[in-house]
Amino acid sequence: MQLPWWAFILLALPILPNMWSIWHVHNNEFPTFQEKALWFVTAVFIPVLGGLAYIFFGRRRIKPRG
Q1: What is the pLDDT of residue 15?
Q2: How many other C-beta atoms can be found within 10 angstroms of the C-beta atom of residue 16?
Q3: What does the pLDDT look like over 31-62, one tens digit per residue?
Q4: Nearest to 59 by CA among 35, 34, 13
Q5: 62 CB neighbour count, 10 Å cutoff
Q6: CA angle centred on 51, ends 49 and 56, rounded to 5°
Q7: CA 16/CA 24 separation, integer angstroms
Q8: What are the backbone angles phi and psi of residue 43, rounded to the nearest 5°?
């Protein structure tokens, strides 16, 4: 049985916020290394919920550039 093309898109949608949050944690600085590591581990080991938690709560914790 083959899935239609749109089923692959629906299956990939929950993964996208998680992949973005892992990339964002990697490319930004946080007040402490432990906080950065915690967000990274959360996004990796709790896939969908960890990514969404980072988007809603973790993005505000990065250090401003400058």
Answers
A1: 92
A2: 10
A3: 999 999 999 999 999 989 999 999 999 999 99
A4: 35
A5: 17
A6: 90
A7: 12
A8: -65, -35
Amino acid at 28: N
Say if residue 51 is exposed, middle or buried (CB neighbours under 10 Å; 0-12, 13-18, 19+): buried
Q: In three state form, how does the secondary structure of 1-66 look?
A: CCCCHHHHHHHHCCHHHHHHHHHHHHHCCCCCHHHHHHHHHHHHHCHHHHHHHHHHHHHHHCCCCC
Summarised one tens digit per residue, pLDDT across range 2-42 is 889 898 888 889 899 999 999 999 999 999 999 999 999 99
Q: What whole-number distance in Å separates Cα of residue 50 and Cα of residue 5? A: 27
Query: Please, are residues 59 and 24 in contact by the beta-carbon 8 Å criterion?
Result: yes
